[in-house]
């Protein structure tokens, strides 16, 4: 990870039927994982289409599936500015991504 700090690593895992959330330290080391169940109707395969909403604040990062809160992840680095959002388009198909803060660039890798 080359010393990059991530406020949220969001990783739905089919094999575990869990959503794994994590963050990294300023030097890039992983912190303690949190696991939440994958909600009904959210299949993590390439044939699925769904919408997720990520709501960031200084205290929490909340992830919504449809209208349900599915992940509530404590922002472990509240004084770190949100500088970028990285999304891996594979295996997911990203049809639309809206970013309300123009100071925070989106990186697809």
Structure description:
This protein is mainly beta and 109 residues long. The protein is 0% helix and 35% strand. It has no helices and eight strands. The strands form three sheets. The chain has a three-stranded antiparallel β-sheet, with no helix packed on it. A hairpin with a 2-residue loop joins strand 5 and strand 6. The protein is globular and about 35 Å long. The two termini are 13 Å apart. The model has no long low-confidence stretch (mean pLDDT 77).
Record field, number of beta strands? 8
Report the helical percentage: under 10%
- Morphology: globular
Structural class of the secondary elements? mainly beta
User: Regions with pLDDT < 50 over 5+ consecutive residues?
Assistant: none
Query: pLDDT average, as an integer?
Result: 77
Largest sheet: 3 strands, antiparallel
What is the CA-atom radius of gyration, in angstroms?
14 Å
Defining traits:
about 110 residues, 3-stranded antiparallel sheet, 8 strands, single chain, mainly beta, about 35% strand
Q: What's this, in brief?
A:
The protein is mainly β.
Helices and strands in order:
Elements: E1 9-13, E2 18-22, E3 34-37, E4 52-56, E5 60-65, E6 68-74, E7 85-87, E8 106-108
Parallel strand pairs: 7-8
Antiparallel strand pairs: 1-2, 2-3, 4-5, 5-6
């Amino acid at each position: 990870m080359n010393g990059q700090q991530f406020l949220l690593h969001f990783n739905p895992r089919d094999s575990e039927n869990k959503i794994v959330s994590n963050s990294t330290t300023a030097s890039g080391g992983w912190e303690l994982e949190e696991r939440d169940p994958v909600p009904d109707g959210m299949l993590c395969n390439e044939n699925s289409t769904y919408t997720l909403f990520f709501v960031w604040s200084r205290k929490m990062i909340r992830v919504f599936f449809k209208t349900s809160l599915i992940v509530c992840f404590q922002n472990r680095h509240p004084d770190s500015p949100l500088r970028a959002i990285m999304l891996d388009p594979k295996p997911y198909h990203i049809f639309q991504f809206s970013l309300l803060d123009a100071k925070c660039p989106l990186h697809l890798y």
